[in-house]
Structures are given as structure tokens and as C-alpha cells.
């Protein structure tokens, strides 16, 4: 079942526009497919399968309804156009030797939107000044071929590049990238070190924004070799979930962790799984894991939730929580969320709370907020945690005062 982007939600719209700003800053353009990847509408592993013609169409890989995808993409492109970026037609092509056309799917609207990118006219004019530069052309062809793992084309482009003056200083770097993508028999631990310390930094330095496309298959290969290996706290990155995460294959991250019989005992696995769920728009599942992290591993929660990877909504709520006048321990974040965020009430029912004082307080807060502050619920919470009752009453009073001021101001 596809998740919902809730595009009409103001938070989703803000995220959409901030993503446009980031992509234009990083790439100098708004590429529609990069936008869909950035906001989580596509799993990167599925995207690569489509680019290599191992998936017939892109639309079937969307993680949210196509109507919401087209609404978000149209809104993003309109926003980019307002910043004086102009439309350039760019029908997507395959990452193979013939680089032929690819099918987006049955939605004509999605196909049209995915076939146009928005670019800065000034950047294109500047590019035209170097149109005849053999070095620029060779580098562009080489970078694209490496990103798409078309290594015959990469060798040809590198040959042309090496014949040009002033290129010998960095040609060897590209040879290293080509060699590193070949069949690998290096032990997994050594390959992990090589990727983290050598190949990924080298790819970022030489390929820039295209580094992700080059290194993803290398990470995916390592993940396959680590499949079935149990998580070891002393070697936390030597696990398939970590390699899949580096390849942006969030569905496979979830599968690798869900296969662990004792995942609950490892807070780092809970964090990775929560991120994977959040990036797949499985908000309820992600919220339940963040809550469990607070109850079972509060120290890890305190270290993690300020950034809550993949879940800016939770990160923002955590920052509100720790900046509040009344200091509370991480274990109380779920109960505070019941008061501050309606989603907590539907995502994390009290049946999931532990049989501890913290869990009983959570249940009491749940009763309070779902009965709209009835007196018996107030009395029950006061007997357990009067500080949480005070937070509820203070926020309620502040909301009432704000509504009253608004009514007076608007007559």
C-alpha cells in the first residue's frame, strides 16, 4: 500500500520548497528525478533498476500515490520558474550503451513533468562559452559514464582526456575508480574500510554530485556479501543494513534489520530502522520506533533525536522538547508528544507502553488528551506526574489565550 505525502499539509509544502532550494544550490538546476528521490517518492534501488532497464516503468516504483507526486513536482517546478529558471526538455534515458528512451508510466502528466528540468539561463550561457573545450566535453562524458557504470564508455572518454595537455595529474584517479568497480574478492571488512576511507572520498572529490550514482552499486555489492551476518556492536558498520543505507536502498535496510532476531536490544539498529521507515513515508512505524528508543534506550535517544535522520518532523519536536522551560528526561518525550502533537495519539496507543512508571504516566497522559482534559483523567495524572499535567494545562491555556486574542483582533 502506498503511503501519503499529505501534500496539502503546510509542513510537506515547506519541505518541498526547501528541497528545491537545496537541489538548485548543489546542482545548479532542478532535475525532476532527483527531486522525487530527495523527497522520498522513490527508493533509490528501484530507480537504478529502472535506469538499467530492469524495471519496465518508473511509476510503479513510486512510494506514494501518483496524484500526490505530480502535485508536488508541479509545485516544485512552478517555484523554480519563479526564481527565473527556465525549462529544458530532457526525456530520461537508460544507463546502458545505447542510452535509449525510458518509460515513465501511464500517467501523461508525470511523464511530461519528468521530461523537463529547470536550469539557470546564466549557467547555460556560461557553459556555451566552453562548448568547444575538448577537456570540458571529455570530463562530462567521463563523469556521466562512471556514474552510470558504463565502463567501456568511461575508458574511451578517459583515453581522450589523457591525450589532452595538463590532465596527467588526475587521470590516475579516474583509473582507480574504474578498477574499483570491477569484481571484488576483498574481505568485507577490508572492502568497508576501502569504501569509507578511500573510494567514497575520491568519488566525491572527482565526480561531485554524481558520486552517489557511482558508489551506490559498490555499497549494494558489499551489502549482498554481508547478507545474513548478525549485527555486532563492536563492528556496527559491518552489517548489511549499513551498506544498504549508504546505497539509499531503504526497503532493503528495513528487511535486513527485521531479519535480526534481537534487533530490539541494539539501539543503533532501531535508529537505522526508524530512518528507513521515515524515508519510505511509513510514519506510524517510524514514530513507534522513536518512541521505543526513548523508553528502552534513553541515552541513545538523547544523542539521536536532535537530528532524527530522515524524520525532520520528529527532530523539530525534539528541539521543542529540550528547549521547554520544564526539563524532562528522554523517557518522557513520548508523553510530551501526546500533548504537543496529535499524530502521537493515533500512532502510538497506550497498549505499547511498558509496564513501568514511565509507561503508566504515558497511559495517563493518553487518557487526559483523548478525553479533552476531563477531571478524572486530570486527577489520575496528577497522582502520577503533576509536572506533565502542568504542561498540558499551560499549553491549553496558551492556546485558549491565543484564540481569544485572534478573535478580538479580527472583530
What does this structure look like?
With 411 residues, this protein is mainly α. It folds into 4 domains: 129 residues, no CATH class; 52 residues; 78 residues, no CATH class; 128 residues, no CATH class. Helices cover 64% and strands 2% of the residues. The chain is built from 22 helices and 3 strands. The protein has a 3-stranded antiparallel beta sheet with strand order 1-3-2. Helix 21 packs across helix 22. About 2% of the residues have low confidence.
Q: Topology of this structure?
A:
Layout: H1 10-27, E1 29-30, H2 32-38, H3 44-51, H4 66-82, E2 86-89, H5 108-113, E3 116-119, H6 121-129, H7 134-147, H8 151-162, H9 168-180, H10 188-207, H11 211-226, H12 240-246, H13 250-258, H14 267-279, H15 283-296, H16 298-304, H17 312-322, H18 333-340, H19 342-347, H20 357-370, H21 375-384, H22 386-409
Antiparallel strand pairs: 1-3, 2-3
Helix pairs in contact: 1-4, 7-8, 8-9, 9-10, 10-11, 11-12, 12-13, 13-14, 14-15, 15-16, 18-20, 18-22, 20-21, 21-22
The ordered string of helix (H) and strand (E) elements is HEHHHEHEHHHHHHHHHHHHHHHHH
User: Helix content range of the residues, please?
Assistant: 55-70%
Low-confidence blocks of residues: 124-132
Sheet with the most strands: spatial strand order: 1-3-2
Overall structural class, as computed from helix and strand content, comes to: mainly alpha
Q: Which strand-content bin applies to the residues? A: under 5%
Number of helices in the DSSP assignment = 22
Largest β-sheet summary: 3 strands, antiparallel
Q: What is the first-to-last residue Cα distance? A: 46 Å
Amino acid at each position: 500500500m502506498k503511503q501519503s505525502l499529505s501534500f496539502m499539509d503546510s509542513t510537506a509544502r515547506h519541505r518541498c520548497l526547501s528541497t528545491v532550494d537545496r537541489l538548485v544550490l548543489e546542482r545548479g538546476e532542478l532535475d525532476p528525478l532527483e527531486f522525487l528521490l530527495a523527497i522520498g517518492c522513490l527508493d533509490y534501488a528501484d530507480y537504478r533498476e529502472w535506469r538499467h532497464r530492469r524495471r519496465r516503468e518508473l511509476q510503479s516504483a513510486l512510494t506514494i500515490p501518483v496524484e500526490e507526486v505530480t502535485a508536488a513536482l508541479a509545485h516544485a517546478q512552478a517555484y523554480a520558474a519563479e526564481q527565473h529558471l527556465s525549462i529544458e526538455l530532457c526525456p530520461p534515458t537508460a544507463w546502458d550503451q545505447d542510452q535509449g528512451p525510458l518509460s515513465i508510466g501511464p500517467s501523461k502528466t508525470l511523464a511530461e513533468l519528468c521530461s523537463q528540468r529547470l536550469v539557470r539561463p546564466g549557467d547555460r550561457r556560461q557553459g556555451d562559452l566552453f562548448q568547444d573545450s575538448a577537456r570540458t566535453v571529455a570530463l562530462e562524458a567521463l563523469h556521466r559514464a562512471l556514474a552510470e557504470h558504463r565502463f567501456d564508455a568511461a575508458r574511451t572518454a578517459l583515453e581522450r582526456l589523457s591525450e589532452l595537455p595538463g590532465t596527467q595529474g588526475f587521470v590516475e584517479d579516474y583509473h582507480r575508480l574504474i578498477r574499483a568497480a570491477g569484481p571484488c574478492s576483498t574481505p568485507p571488512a577490508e572492502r568497508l574500510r576501502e569504501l569509507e576511507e578511500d573510494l567514497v572520498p575520491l568519488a566525491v572529490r572527482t565526480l561531485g554530485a554524481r558520486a552517489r550514482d557511482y558508489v551506490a552499486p559498490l555499497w549494494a555489492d558489499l551489502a549482498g556479501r554481508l547478507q545474513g551476518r548478525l549485527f555486532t556492536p563492536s563492528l556496527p558498520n559491518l552489517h548489511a543494513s549499513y551498506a544498504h543505507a549508504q546505497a539509499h536502498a531503504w526497503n532493503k535496510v528495513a528487511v535486513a534489520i527485521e531479519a535480526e532476531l534481537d534487533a530490539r536490544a541494539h539501539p543503533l539498529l532501531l535508529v537505522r530502522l526508524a530512518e528507513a521507515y521515515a524515508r519510505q513515508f511509513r510514519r506510524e512505524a517510524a514514530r513507534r520506533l522513536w518512541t521505543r528508543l526513548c523508553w528502552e534506550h534513553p541515552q541513545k535517544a538523547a544523542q539521536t533525536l536532535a537530528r532524527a535522520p530522515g524524520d525532520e518532523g520528529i527532530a523539530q519536536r525534539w528541539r521543542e522538547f529540550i528547549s521547554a522551560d520544564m526539563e524532562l528526561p528522554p523517557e518522557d518525550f513520548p508523553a510530551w508528544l501526546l500533548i504537543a502533537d496529535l499524530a502521537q495519539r493515533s500512532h502510538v496507543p497506550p497498549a505499547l507502553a511498558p509496564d513501568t512508571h514511565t509507561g503508566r504516566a504515558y497511559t495517563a497522559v493518553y487518557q487526559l488528551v483523548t478525553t479533552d482534559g476531563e477531571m478524572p483523567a486530570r486527577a489520575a495524572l496528577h497522582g502520577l506526574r503533576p509536572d506533565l499535567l502542568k504542561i498540558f494545562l499551560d499549553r491549553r491555556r496558551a492556546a485558549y489565550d491565543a484564540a481569544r486574542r485572534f478573535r478580538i483582533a479580527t472583530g
